[in-house]
Design brief:
Layout lengths: L4 E4 L4 H13 L3 E8 L2 E9 L15 E2 L4 H14 L26 H5 L20 H10 L16 H14 L3 H13 L4 E2 L23 E2 L17 E2 H4 L2 H5 L7 E3 L1 H12 L3 E2 L2 E2 L3 H4 L7 E5 L4 E5 L4 E3 L2 E5 L5 E5 L4 E7 L12 H11 L3
Helix pairs in contact: 1-11, 2-5, 4-5
């Protein structure tokens, strides 16, 4: 049995048991965290940080959470909206004038956050390295025509979400979104989460492990949603070897290259579940949190190929909201229960060939602790 370390309130013992089962069965290394009323009730980790199982997963171990990063990027936009610096119902072009080109003058900030802006792809196909050119990619997006009338349909903006929201944040604040997140979110909270990663933290990274029988050439056209849906086509093919590369860590890809562990993911997102505060730190008002769970769009998602409910930045699932990343990471928040649950791992699962209910198992175990 894997040696699980950390803290778990007795009433949430089912979470400890669930993590133990996962580490005994399919996970190499993982961390789980639960916060209620903005305070930690579960903070556990165990297993190994490498596929060879020679390096222990430690308290400070980080992993790339892929599209779970979108939750962090969306929070930055909601903070600016709460401060009166960003109007979710204003045209994107009000902050980014070049964006009005090609019939996009009516695209609203809310459309971008809810995956209804009609810009789910970059002109492609292209190499992953081209994603590292922030100015080039955002200029291309500003010049593109939407694929549908914005606001009338949804299509998961797997990679473009980060460039669009990130450029809006940069235009409003004069700071790149990684810098804004570090100074306005992670710093005040003391959260060990990073959009992109400094070289000095490389030694803490648990590289993603390809699904069983796969190599690091394993690729997905886009990170799947929590329901396991996968998109049918894409403009950029991202492989495990790309995500594990130093170039990916140094890049600014605010849709997909966040690095953290369950503790830091849950800490940051618990701000929204707990009406704007976590651990005694207030980042936004209670009312400013509401767009995270207020539905903007409900219906078929043209990219994921499944019915989806989107809010301003998050997937909505019943009373809960959040999003997950390619390979299995997940964060879910419930504003009624004031609870946030996060799961971060290094062993990926190919949802085309195997059901991946690991994150859901942790979430359901957390709910059992509420009584």
């Amino acid at each position: 049995m894997n040696d699980i370390k950390g803290y778990c309130e007795p009433r949430f013992g089912a979470v400890h048991e669930a993590l133990a089962r996962l580490l005994d069965k399919e996970d190499v290394g993982a961390s789980v965290a639960v916060r209620v009323d903005g305070e930690p009730v579960v903070d556990l980790w165990g297993g190994f940080a490498d596929a060879e199982r020679s390096v222990r997963w430690e308290r400070s171990t980080l992993a790339c959470v892929n599209s779970t990063t979108k939750n962090m990027t969306a929070l930055c936009a909601l903070i600016l909206a709460d401060r009166g610096l960003l109007d979710l119902d204003a045209p994107v072009a009000a902050y980014w004038p070049e964006f009005a080109a090609a019939g996009k003058a009516g695209v609203l900030v809310r459309h971008v956050l809810s995956h209804t802006a009609g810009l789910p792809d970059l002109p492609g196909p292209r190499a992953v390295e081209e994603l590292y050119d922030w100015e080039g990619v955002t200029a291309e997006l500003a010049a593109r025509a939407p694929a549908w009338e914005p606001g009338t349909a949804a299509g998961y903006h797997a990679l473009t979400f980060g460039f669009l929201v990130g450029e809006i944040v940069r235009r409003v604040t004069g700071r790149g979104i990684a810098e804004f997140f570090a100074e306005e979110v992670a710093g005040p909270l003391g959260a060990d989460f990073h959009i992109g990663l400094p070289e000095g933290d490389d030694h803490r990274v648990a590289p993603l492990v390809p699904p069983p029988s796969m190599t690091d050439e394993y690729a997905a056209s886009a990170p799947p949603g929590p329901d396991g849906a996968r998109r049918e086509s894409a403009d950029v093919t991202v492989r495990v070897k790309d995500v594990n590369s130093p170039a990916w860590r140094r890049a600014l890809l605010p849709a997909v290259n966040g690095f953290g562990n369950a503790r830091s993911v849950a800490l940051v997102q618990s701000v929204l579940a707990n009406r704007g505060t976590a651990g005694g730190v207030r980042l936004l008002s209670a009312r400013g949190c509401e767009p995270a769970w207020q539905e903007v769009f409900s219906g078929p998602d043209r990219v994921l190929g499944t019915p989806m409910s989107w809010t301003a930045g998050f997937g909505k699932f019943g009373n809960a909201f959040g999003w997950g990343g390619w390979g299995g990471s997940l964060v879910v928040s419930d504003p009624d229960a004031r609870m946030t649950v996060a799961y971060v791992m290094n062993q990926m699962i190919d949802r085309d060939g195997q059901e991946d209910d690991r994150g859901t198992e942790i979430v359901m175990a957390a709910y059992s602790g509420l009584g």
